Structures are given as structure tokens and as C-alpha cells.
Amino acid sequence: MALFGLGKKLTLPTLEDAFPGRSQPIPIPATHYVNGNPLAPPYPPEMEIALFGLGCFWGAERKFWQIPGVYVTAVGYAAGVTPNPTYQEVCTGMTGHNEVVQVVYDPGQVSYQTLLKVFWESHNPTQGMRQGNDVGTQYRSGIYVFNEAQRQGAEQSLQQYQLALDTARKGKITTEILDAPPFYFAEAYHQQYLAKNPNGYCGLGGTGVCYEEA
């Protein structure tokens, strides 16, 4: 899915080096292409939000919209510097953003732990600034938490999954766990891309390792 091929940046830009961005958000569709729910807030009050980066966001988003209890998903950019970045800017590595999926879910129907399990088992979190053939800072593994319960769940699941990887003689996890930064919606054509383009590129792999939920 990378636009610029080889020579991708593997380090995050400084505030001084990053693109300046813009004050206006990128236009997005009103509703989710698959389930018809509103793409942007406000969401029903019982909903909670999770935010994950696990490589190419096209395939990542599909993993989450298929889960019962997920109200709506959207792809976008987070954990960078540039406000309201474009996809072309993100692909240069000069915004610092990660490709992420925002998951709005009903905790009465699906747990955060279940979302974490899908996260870990849908990509390889040991590859640093890449995911398979996709290379660059925008493809790093990340969990962005909205409260202390999510942080504890994320850190506990990381420890459990690292144990499973150690048992399988796999690598060390490079996933960043950070307080949720601003989320910027990606362009309209990226939203639910694989529903609109069933034969489109996915890019997600995995380690072939599972772990048990606590």
C-alpha cells in the first residue's frame, strides 16, 4: 500500500522537521459503507472507543468491523505531529503519524480484551517500523489507550502475548502503548476500502501465535 516504494523513513520526525499540516479536517462520508452507522461522533452514549495501529489500515479495519458488538470503524492517522495530514504527507514519513483504526464498540457486547486479541493475532508486532512488505513509520504497531483500564488491559495482554512468542521462539514485541493522541480521519476513499474493493491489497499477516485472554 506504500506510495513511494523503497527509501521509506524509519525514524519519526521532530516537531521542527514535520510538515505544518492544516487547520481544516479532511472531508469524510457521513456513514459507514458496510453498516450505515455514523462515521464521526457523536456516538451513542454507551459506546467506548479503541484505537489500534497494525500495519496497512485497509486490512486492519476489516478485521474489526466484522466483530459483533462493534458499532462503527474508521481509518485515520494518529500519534504524529502534523495536524489534519493527508495520506500523501503521511507516506513521506514527515508527519510522524501511524495508520490506525478507530473502533467504536459496545462494551456490553464485546470486551476490550477481545479487541486486543484480534489486534495481536492479526499482525506481527515484532517488526518495528514495518509490517511485512510495508516499510515506514506509518506501519508501526501501536495501542492508543483512552483510560487506565485500557492501559492495564493493553500492558497485560502484551505480557501474555510476549510469553506466547517466547514459547514459540519468536521475536520481541515493538508495539508502542501510548495515551490516545488526536485521531484524524483518513480520506473518503480509504474508509472501508476492502468493502468497496474486495480484491484490494490487504498486507496483514501475523505470527501464527495465539494467546489466552486473562
Automatic annotation (TrEMBL):
Keywords: Oxidoreductase. It catalyses: L-methionyl-[protein] + [thioredoxin]-disulfide + H2O = L-methionyl-(S)-S-oxide-[protein] + [thioredoxin]-dithiol; [thioredoxin]-disulfide + L-methionine + H2O = L-methionine (S)-S-oxide + [thioredoxin]-dithiol. GO terms for molecular function: peptide-methionine (S)-S-oxide reductase activity. Its EC number is 1.8.4.11. The active site is at C56. It comes from the Bacteria. One of its GO terms (biological process) is cellular response to oxidative stress. Residues 50-202 form the Peptide methionine sulphoxide reductase MsrA domain. It is an enzyme of class 1 (oxidoreductase). One of its GO terms (cellular component) is cytoplasm. Has an important function as a repair enzyme for proteins that have been inactivated by oxidation. Catalyzes the reversible oxidation-reduction of methionine sulfoxide in proteins to methionine. Belongs to the MsrA Met sulfoxide reductase family. This is Peptide methionine sulfoxide reductase MsrA. It comes from Pseudocalidococcus azoricus BACA0444.
